[in-house]
Design brief:
It contains ten helices and no strands. It is 79% helix and 0% strand.
Length: 216
């Protein structure tokens, strides 16, 4: 009997181990982060061939106008950063309200990562070491936090779409749809708050180091 318990008992049931649902949840987030990093990689490769006009035209979404970032005030830096994050989270939130939208939300972290990678590639190609330092000191801290928040928001949208699909099954739904929607709204509001924190970080690093750079 003792040997039978040892063979068939799961180590995840013991205190101190991570349970299987938590592992699956983390794995899903890892998938979204890998999608983000894939976008960064392709964006960095494409950014090496980008021109100034393209970078300025994408500034509203990806904050790629470096001349403006070096001269704007702290409030302007926060508003610009938060507006960019808000656009992404709003799109992801709306996608999560539909049956198929969650599957489209999978690609949002890729788009965010592509925009960041585009900035990195352009800065390296145009300004060399100066561009790399600018990226590390000013762009990277806030962009990393914001990208992680958007990946988490995309994950929530994907999971909410799956829950909506479960409503159409013939079997009874165990969770109240109203409670599910309330949880979805609260999770998105929390992620929006985290996006505001990432914008504050972006503002802080921009204030501390932007005076060191002057892009012509």
């Amino acid at each position: 009997m003792l040997m039978k318990k040892i063979i068939f008992s799961s180590p995840f049931r013991k205190k101190g181990y991570v349970r299987l649902p938590e592992i699956r949840k983390n794995l899903l987030f890892v998938v979204f982060m890998l999608t983000l990093f894939a976008g960064i990689t392709l964006g960095a490769l494409g950014g090496r061939a980008a021109d100034k006009q393209l970078m300025e035209s994408l500034d509203v979404i990806f904050l790629t106008n470096f001349k403006v970032r070096c001269s704007q005030s702290m409030i302007d830096a926060f508003v610009a950063s938060f507006a960019s994050a808000f656009i992404f989270i709003l799109v992801v939130f709306l996608l999560g309200l539909s049956v198929w939208g969650g599957f489209i939300a999978v690609f949002v972290p890729f788009i965010k990562g592509y925009g960041y990678g585009l900035s990195v590639g352009y800065l390296y190609a145009a300004y060399g070491l100066t561009g790399i330092l600018y990226n590390i000191l000013i762009i990277l801290p806030g962009a990393f936090l914001c990208s992680a928040v958007i990946a988490a928001a995309s994950q929530e949208a994907f999971r909410n779409s799956i829950k909506i699909i479960s409503v159409f099954r013939k079997t009874a739904v165990s969770d109240d749809p109203h409670i599910q929607m309330k949880k979805y709204l609260l999770s998105m509001l929390w992620l929006l708050f985290l996006a505001a924190i990432s914008s504050a970080v972006d503002m802080l690093f921009s204030f501390m180091f932007s005076w060191l750079f002057g892009f012509q």
